[in-house]
Amino acid sequence: MQLADWPEIKPEYLDADLEARWDKILTVRDEVAKVLEQARREKMIRSSLDARVELYPSDEWRSFVTELTSEWPMLLIVSQVSIASADAEPAANAVESEELPGFKVRVSPAAGEKCERCWNYSEAATHDAEDHAICPRCAAVLAQQGTK
Prior knowledge:
By secondary structure, the chain is α+β, with helices and mostly antiparallel strands. It has helices at residues 16-41, 59-67, 72-76, 136-145, and strands spanning 51-56, 80-83, 95-96, 104-109, 113-114, 121-122, 126-127, 133-134. The chain folds into two domains: 15-111, hypothetical protein PF0899 fold, CATH 3.30.2320.20; 112-148, no CATH class. The strands form three sheets. It has a four-stranded mixed β-sheet, covered by helices on one side.
């Protein structure tokens, strides 16, 4: 098995635009990870799911970042992400990116209750019959499965 060659990549699977998009996502993710690690060292959060991330993108990155507004929590593996408006003044403790000039990131503890199923924090969490905090996403999944 370990002596086998890697499979050949089919040319039709290559997509330069998709690759460029993922490169940008990973660049933002790397910058956020640095700030998350700093927040961990300072004992502000224990894990990335304990975090709320505020992005202050530069003009160059704003349209790309806002395209993915709803996907950022999943991509960054955090509970909450907000994207500041173009005229918003960055918070005093926002950290300027090393790789993306003008791009700032702020990490704070996530608001709301921790979902006992997925561990994401949600301000809209509800409680099930056993008084477990459940986020809206997990509540929908459990309802679909017929579990409450």
